Amino acid sequence: MFTSFLDESEVLFEFEPLNPEALPLSSEQINQSLDYCRSILDDRKQWQTYLNSLAFFGFQNWLEQRSSELVFNLDHPSLEKPELAYFIEAVCNLAVNQFKICLVALGNSRTDTIILPRAIFELPEYRAHYYILIEVQEELETTSIYGFISYSDFQAHKTQIDLEPKADWTYSVPLSWFNTEPDQFLLFVRCLEVSAIPLPEIQNPAILLSQIREELISKLSQLQSSEPGSFHELWQILTWEQGKIIFSYPELLRWIYEVQNQAILSAQPISQFHKNPIAYLTDLFNLLTQPTLNLAGWFNQELDIISTALSWVFIPDFSPETALRDGTEISSLVKQLQENGVEISPQAKGAYRDLGLGGRSLRLYALTWPLEWEIEPEWTLLLILGLTTGTDLPVGVKLRVSDATGILVEQDSNREDQCSYLFTRVVGTCQEKFVVTVSLREDITETLPPFEFSFN
């Protein structure tokens, strides 16, 4: 539900002198700003996102008015991703003449300092060459450039006074640090080389994520246990060093964003993600940290090193036609699937792996083939899970498949519908991966390394 910000019956208007440098916002830009913050469910952060959205459009208007020579890229700002807009109260991922730009809205309430997120200064993914304060007068529907500071100047000021971050992962920055001559910003981005303001290089956080994954899973699980209508902030359960790793993965931020809003979202249809968020968190960590099985290699009649190490057995002469004639277990399964309307491409290749769970010997078949595509290459993964003996699966066996967006499917055998196998099919692009989990109970589980399909 979106809170109305401009209820005339509740707002007491005060006279504010019009800034001669202020530029008007169009009704379309205001409506787009409302759209950006509709998915932000926390009232305070919703309001800040609204102000930041107005600041973004105000900055765009200012650039277009002041210079036709500048090359600016304002596509896909962080506002377009609710999880980034929610956790980072600034507008990142912008560029002017190849300089990285970060915008922060300055509202009507004015003090001598402004609270800025620590992330925009210390995380390579969101760090900028220049930070620009945009004065937003939402009632007048105008914005103006208040001031700017470079990354190097911020660091110099910070060192000089030994500025320490606050416990909630923010800095309280004096407004006096900001250069209030916007024309100088235009001069700098026209005349300076990007190398004049060096930024630390982006480091790969995957190793650190792997090292502390269990600790992070344990701590992030606390987010789900909050009382309805309330939740822990990240800074309350994580150290900043742990938080830095989380912020490096938008997928993890998206999970946290969804969990923190679960109480409100529960009034809507429950997705697969919301049914089992902790299970999905484990799947997500596997997607982010585990080496992948590249099934494209199966079309070269070979298993990759990871598949071989995990005891996958390639079916070298497999095809749906030969499978129907050879009398093997896979032929019986393929026949049953086709009789139930499941189409299997003549190009399909397959392999299987035996799993020992709780004293049961299960066999998981994986079949894959490329699909016809119009925009970008796609592939499909067909999974078949049964017992090596071919008898009915025990009650409670589950087959779960997840990707970077959530749990795609979760099937289980039950008493009412005894079956000899479970099967599911998923489709993705060559940039997508799937992680598969087989379980007997919550404490008897095996998650396989992610599947991908890439010819690179």
- Tell me what portion of residues adopts beta-strand conformation: 25-35%
Number of strands: 19
Low-confidence sequence ranges? 1-18, 267-273
- How many domains, as an integer? 3
Cα shape: elongated
What does the main sheet amount to?
A: 6 strands, mixed
Helix segment tally: 17
Cα(first) to Cα(last) distance is 44 Å
Average pLDDT, to the nearest integer?
Answer: 83
- Would you tell me the structural class of the helices and strands? alpha+beta
Q: Which percent bin holds the helix content?
A: 25-40%
InterPro entries: DUF1822
Organism: Planktothrix tepida PCC 9214
Pfam family, one: DUF1822
Protein name: DUF1822 family protein
Describe the secondary structure blueprint for this structure.
Blueprint: E1 23-24, H1 27-38, H2 43-66, E2 72-73, H3 82-87, E3 91-96, E4 99-106, E5 113-117, H4 119-122, E6 130-137, E7 142-150, H5 151-161, E8 170-174, H6 182-191, H7 206-211, H8 213-220, H9 234-237, H10 240-247, H11 250-260, H12 262-265, H13 272-275, H14 277-289, E9 293-294, H15 305-309, E10 313-315, H16 320-323, H17 329-339, E11 349-357, E12 360-371, E13 378-387, E14 398-403, E15 406-412, E16 421-429, E17 435-441, E18 444-447, E19 451-452
Parallel strand pairs: 4-6, 9-19
Antiparallel strand pairs: 1-7, 2-3, 3-4, 5-8, 6-7, 10-11, 11-12, 12-13, 13-16, 14-15, 14-17, 17-18
Helix pairs in contact: 1-2, 11-14
